[in-house]
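[step 3/7] fold_predict: job queued, chain A
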Amino acid sequence: MQINVIYSAPPVLFYSLMLIVWLISYYFYRSTKPPIPRSLRRFCMVLRGAVLTLILWLLFRPVIRITQYHREKPRLAVLIDGSASMTVSEEEHPRSFQITRFLGSLVFQKIQEKTSIELFSFSDQIYPISSNDSLSFHGSMTNLTQALDQVVGQEGRLPLRGILLLSDGAHNEGALPENRCDAWPVPIYAVGIGDSQEKPDVVLTQVKANEITYVDQSMPVRVSLRGPGFGDREVQLYLSKGNQRLQRKQIRIPKNGLETSVTLYWTPEVPGNERFKVWVEPLAGELTGKNNAREFYVRIHKQKKKVLILSGRPDPDLGFIKRVFQQDRNTELLVRTQQPGGQFYEGNLRISDIEKTDVAVLLYFPNSHTSKVSWQMLMDVFQYHPKPLLIIAGKSVDIAAVKKLPQTLPVHAFGNPDINWVLPRLTAHGMQHPVPLIDDASQSQSAWAQLPPISTSWPDASIMPGAKVLVEGIVETSAQHACPILVSRSFQNQKIMMILANQLYRWHMLMWQEDDPRNLLEQVILRSIRWLSTNESIRPVRLKLEERIYPAGIQAPVHAEVYDETLLPVDDANVQLTVTGPDTLNVSLKPEGSGQYQGRLSGLMPGEYQIVAEATLKGRFLGRDTTAFVITDFQPEFLQTQARPEVLERISKQSGGLFFTPDSMGALDDAIHFPMETLVALREIKPWQDFRFLIFIVFLLSLEWLIRRRKGMM
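[step 4/7] structure written:
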């Protein structure tokens, strides 16, 4: 320990003044009146000198600097592989047995005696643990690079001197660790656990199926599998839904561990969200059965959307729109074209035709030739069976009749019909709507701005509150005037879209002449039908999962959006998740701004779960949303079950450490040897800021005053 005193002025000046202070004290007490004993006179002189010296010392603002040195054990990080591949059994014991045995061994105790150990468990994430924690080996993936990056970058009271890595080396996520060794400036002592020889095992390496399919349409499920150790053996491959086996196919496992692919087919009969499973029964002598099955979700829709087109007359626009829908295999089209007398060329319009329709398209319909019987029949069906509507309103449309529709139109006042040529422009609402977008907002805005003019008959149309103008037209004669071209409204599960334009076919031809590669108008028509036919209610709380099926051990991200009654995003809500299933879990989501919230679910057992998200704001309930997901036994760790000791050996060599096997772990005690750390602790004391010195000075002065008074020297 070293002690130094630092003054705010030269120390020579202090010592010179201190000498003067003591001379003054001697002068005052060389003789006294009345005389007092010599010993008492000397005591008072020392008392006066000490007080004045202490005051003088404090005036020089001294700083007492104390430097202490002590030695501590060097810091060593121990990384333990907690992934599911450590549960693979080899020679009657799982790989994790080697880790637990080493942690309880005499070798590890000796390492603990000479190093300061920090324990971590890692898989796809890394967690600090204590020696009292029970080890868990359920991680779905192994990310060696991330684990080493985080340990090296972690600050501590002592510098990190080395890393002891216990793993099978089966890295399967993130950057390759062999390419990152320059970022780890400490030696890594790796212990490779597990056999690098592939054991007999049947592995479903991949299952591919469309996320969306249709009723009465064959659904292909492509399965890839391999079976090292079972070459040329026949197995049964199953496709099932719940407890129902849908398909079975006998396949032969290729030799030499090669991969084979096979396709199963199944035809859905009813729409819905279904969970499927592809699996092979475990074979005798197989390493593990956890990679014999894969699960997936499929959304099954009706085979085709039924679209009814009611056209006010034969028109080139009708031919254009019919061609767009006929090219879409997911659309079943019914067309009724009105004659001048009010009948239809294709035959009578029946009530059943309207009731079975998913989306109705009114093309310049109704008009002055429309029979009252046909229109009233349409009105009656729409009254009790509301249908999404796409209304293309030209000059010939009977606006008074259209306004009597049971559905609330997005336009409430049309004004007088007047043909105007306008330049289309994407609005702010359009840049957030799926119908007019191409790829992203900036590209869409540029694409719409390059389109030729289009004619509209309703330049003075007024928009209903709650409706959104997706595309507006700029009148060529007046750049200040904008009129609606494409308008949408969604209210209480009723959707209507209006195109206030004429001669769409001509506009499409002009776009084609401009070499438009996107066929923008065709996309707008098709996307309008898809948007109209999608039944998506407006919810104040919207819960989202990235997947419907997660492997065991993974952290599943959860996202939520929260809106108020006016559908404005809420940033400061309290969003709580309740997860129920084989396990229960309560999670609070963190706000991310703009009404977005996120969190993670982890540590759940395999099984089916339901999530309920509830949002409150200052004690006021905003809303809730629910969804479901599945935690499956399958884990990516079991796609490759053999150990990868060569990966650990390269890491150790490039970092300046050593590589060990379970049989040579006894040499770790001699290999891991670092010098003791010398820590320097610096402490500063500023007496002039300590009130206790003031109390001491007052005490000494009071003592001197008391002696002088009692001896009559006042």
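[step 5/7] annotate
The CA atoms of residues 85 and 641 lie 7 Å apart.
DSSP finds 15 helices and 39 strands in the chain.
exit 0
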